[in-house]
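Hypothesis: this fold can be encoded by more than one sequence.
Test: take the structure tokens below, design a sequence, compare later.
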């Protein structure tokens, strides 16, 4: 658990995210509190691999119990900054499920180009 500051500033996160300042939001104490609430609500279980949630595009290849470490916004905060701190807009996912949903898993298996080095004697 992250140590929190005793005195916190009140931010208007909707305006900050609209400016494009999402890193400040994800490093904030408000996000840490919401993240802990979502993980405890879902009992630290990945909802994607448990078969309890899908995004109608991706489906789990196998139903299994996986520990959740990441909290994902269902509707991205860049589209709807007003839902950034809404607990109903967040879901608990494992790292692998988050990569699948964000379509970053396809880059994992991409073949790398081999560099041809000139042989020198």
């Amino acid at each position: 658990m992250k140590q929190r500051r005793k005195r916190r500033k009140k931010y208007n996160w909707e305006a900050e995210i609209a400016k494009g300042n999402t890193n400040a939001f994800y490093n904030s104490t408000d996000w840490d509190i919401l993240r802990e609430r979502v993980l405890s609500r879902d009992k630290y279980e990945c909802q994607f691999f448990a078969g309890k949630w899908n995004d109608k595009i991706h489906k789990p290849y196998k139903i299994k119990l996986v520990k959740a470490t990441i909290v994902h916004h269902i509707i991205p905060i860049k589209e709807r900054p007003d839902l950034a701190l809404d607990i109903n807009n967040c879901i608990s996912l494992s790292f692998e499920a988050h990569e699948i949903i964000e379509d970053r898993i396809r880059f994992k298996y991409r073949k790398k180009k081999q560099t041809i080095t000139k042989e020198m004697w």
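Residues 13-107 form one domain. DSSP finds four helices and two strands in the chain.
Hypothesis status: open.
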